[in-house]
């Protein structure tokens, strides 16, 4: 599949390539959009974000960070309840 995308690119054709694999996307892409629940969470060009930043976005980005903080606060409350 990647070879076909690269061949199309060499011919000057636009390709929309949907994947969950960051390495594949970075191998063939030059413009990226990350969607979360159908909404565009990010739009950037090659080199503007690191692989780690893209992976974080794909994993939920800010929404995931909020969820992790919520879970952490519940764990702290639960640990405090157990200590008392």
| Structural class label | alpha+beta
Radius of gyration: 19 Å
N→C terminal distance = 58 Å
Task: Tell me about the largest β-sheet.
Answer: 2 strands, antiparallel
Shape: rod-shaped
Task: Write a compact overview of the structure shown.
This protein has 84 residues and is of the alpha+beta class. Helix content is 56%, strand content 15%.
What does this structure look like?
This protein has one domain (2-83). Helix content is 56%, strand content 15%. It is built from 4 helices and 2 strands; from the N terminus they run ααββαα. It has a two-stranded antiparallel ribbon with strand order 1-2.
How is the secondary structure organized here?
Layout: H1 2-10, H2 22-28, E1 31-36, E2 39-45, H3 51-58, H4 61-83
Antiparallel strand pairs: 1-2
Question: Notable features of this structure?
Answer:
alpha+beta; two-stranded antiparallel sheet; 84 residues; 56% helix
